């Protein structure tokens, strides 16, 4: 059984480090600017966004220095003092590293806890939140590696987001199916089928008893199967299977496209065909596009399935990137009714233990 670590983000806050302490601990003078980003004299605020970073400092860099550098670069800090610092209240807006603890069993790895004032972030924008918290800081030269393990996002911020367009209860009402899991599958091969043959496979699966079928993540609008043709043949397959089984069926039509405008155009066409659900690749498509599609789905009725393609680029390395729990929380804010989770044991990373 795999047990994921749970990070209790409301840690006791450290005191601010004085310049004398910094000198005695061997801080490089180039990092003196970051001392002010360590410790919270007044304690945490209920409205702060709290982050747990797994920090691997470069050799010779104290963990407090690394944690303070993360807090600085992901909020108001830069590599030197600038005269425009005096035009605002930096103490109000700076992020602060408030607690550091070693990672058990790992050499030179630490969990640095950082608090961000809520005013640093635009309401309802995952894009803006991530631009600050995981933007430039991952390339910081004081760090050998950095991983965002968890976020605590306060209600004051989550309430600025729409969230999932509908949810499981609405999905069951649309399908008139209760008391059991919904069963579906992905059409294979993922690339190369014509639109007509894709529709044929959809019909056979739905007629055979499945509730849903779905496009694969990289099926968009290629020369062998343009999106409009695929949508038409899949809709025909859905209606034929429904007529023969007496059940409501569906197919996750992938609306992911090269532009937000084209993506919405495809979602509109799916709705006009009466297809109950569309799909989006939220990481490759981007959070702004995903939030736009989620808003359209809530306003106009389609369910929204999310594919996690590209996630392993971000979450697979255990010392660098982001934990998938953070990506899942971000999706919860951006909007999606459910997400492709992958098989428990199969061709991807993971084992039965």
Automatic annotation (TrEMBL):
One annotated Gene Ontology cellular component of this protein: plastid
Gene Ontology biological-process entries: photorespiration; reductive pentose-phosphate cycle
GO molecular function, a single term: magnesium ion binding
Domain Ribulose bisphosphate carboxylase large subunit C-terminal: 167-353
Signal peptide: none
Keywords carried by this UniProt record: Calvin cycle, Carbon dioxide fixation, Disulfide bond, Lyase, Magnesium, Metal-binding, Monooxygenase, Oxidoreductase, Photorespiration, Photosynthesis, Plastid
Primary location class: plastid
Protein name: Ribulose bisphosphate carboxylase large chain
Species of the source: Brassica carinata (Ethiopian mustard)
